Amino acid sequence: MESKHLKIIFFTIFCILFFSSFVLYKDGKWVPFSNSKETKIIREGDTVPSLQFDGFNSEVLRLSKKVTLIHFWATWCGPCAEELPSFDKLLSQFSDQIQVFAISQDDSEIEVYAFMKPLKTLTASPNFKIIPDFHHQLGSQFKVLALPETYIVNHEGKVLRKVVGAMDWGTLEVQKYFNELLAQ
Q1: Euclidean distance between CA atoms 59 and 47, whole angstroms
Q2: What HEC string does the chain produce?
Q3: Counting CB atoms within 10 angstroms of each CB, which of 76, 85, 102, 126 has the fewest?
C-alpha cells in the first residue's frame, strides 16, 4: 500500500513539473512558455527591439551611421567601475564612428551622476550618453542577466556582438576589431 502512495506522489510531482514547463503565469493569465516574450534573449544577429525611453530611442540607431555600444552597468558593480573609463580610450580613437549609450541600472540619479563626475572627458563626449533606467525597463527588454553587459549594434539595429562581463575597450585587440568592423 505504501508503494502505491509513493508512486502516486511521484507521478503527481512529475506532472506538475512537466506541465509547468509549458506555461508561464503573466498578467493574471497562463501563457504558453514558448510564446512568451519573457523568454527571448537578445543574441548576436538579432535586431535591437524597438524602444523609446527617457532620451533613448532605438530609431536613433537606424538613422545614425555610427556603430553603437548599448552598455548596461551600475555604480555598485565593481567590474563596471573598472571598465567604464576605458570607453574614453575607445571614443577618442573612433570619435566620429562610434557612440555609447551607457544605461545605468542604478536606483538613483544622484548615485549615477556622483559616480560619473570624475570621468569628465568621457561625459563631455557628444558620443557618450548616460541613460538612467531606474525602473529597469530597458534592462528587462534586453533581458540583461549580468552586469556589465554590452551590445555592439550596427546602424541597421543588428546586434553584431554581445559582450557579457567587463572588458578593456582601449586595447589593441579592441581597436583592431573596430578597425575591421568599420572598414566593411
Answers
A1: 12
A2: CHHHHHHHHHHHHHHHHHHHCCEEEECCEEEEHHHCHHHCCCCCCCECCCCEECCEECHHHHHCCCEEEEEEECCCCHHHHHHCCHHHHHHHHCCCCEEEEEEECCCCHHHHHHHHCCCHHHHHCCCEEEEECCCCHHHHHCCCCCCCEEEEECCCCEEEEEEECCCCCCCHHHHHHHHHHHHC
A3: 126
**Class of residue 69 by CB neighbours under 10 A (exposed 0-12, middle 13-18, buried 19+):** buried
φ, ψ (nearest 5 deg) of residue 178:
-70, -35
**Which pLDDT tens digit goes with each residue over 61-91?**
555 778 999 999 999 999 999 999 999 999 9
Rounded to whole angstroms, the Cα distance separating 71 from 150 reads 4
Q: Are 159 and 48 in contact (CB under 8 A)?
A: yes
Straight-line distance from the first to the last Cα atom of the chain, in angstroms, rounded to the nearest whole number: 72
CA–CA separation, 88 vs 100, rounded Å? 10
Put residue 151 in one of left, alpha, beta given phi > 0 → left and psi -120 to 50 → alpha. beta
φ, ψ for residue 156, nearest 5 deg: -90, 0
The reported pTM is: 0.74
